[in-house]
Predict the structure.
Amino acid sequence: MWGEAKVVERIDWNDELFTLRLSADIGDFIAGQFIKLSQHIEGKRVARAYSLVNAPSSDLVEVLAINVEGGVLSPNLQALNVGDTVDISTKAAGFMTLDELPNQGRHLWFFATGTAVGPFISMMRTPQPWGRFDKVILVYGVRYADDLAYIEEFESYKSQYPGQFELVTSVTREPYEGAINMRITQGMLTGVIEAQTGVKLTAEDAQVMICGHPEMIKELNQLLLDRGLVKNLRRAPGQITVEKYW
């Protein structure tokens, strides 16, 4: 089922990375879920999934997207201006939500690369993680510093939730003040991330949500399994929840 979404605002983080804020009726959703944006291109409907960045209480639909080289839909989305329209799925979907986490663990770890930080932003814009966990840790990896979207919002959480929120940024292809200059998995293997946050990631204390590049997910998942954490399933609650972003 498709409806119409009108562009109300756009933010260009760099030449390829952008946010669209849309006026659209998608009904109720849970932070962490996604919708699909679509256009008819050369006589065929082309649709792609995008995580919702906005909180469920927001009046606007918000997505973070990147113009994928060779992509069919993403260049058209980047070309949209305020007042333009795009088709949108009228019902959100997805199971990477805080509601799916078992009621155990004091520390919530978000690991994201690139645009996959989107669903975690939606969650952090709700009261749920802040009321449920003693610590909320976001580990956010990108290639270049100007790929860091929403960084001012993340910095604001430090003062809004003092002692509760920890942020680690990973910028791999250039030095950037305050960021670790290594991949997320290397940062975990060497202990740099835990040292920077002051929090040890353990099976006893952690709930871990991972979203992003398939290789990052694969390597980090194995690292966590080696530490004694297990995949979270409805029939067998654990500590690791994963969503593959492409």
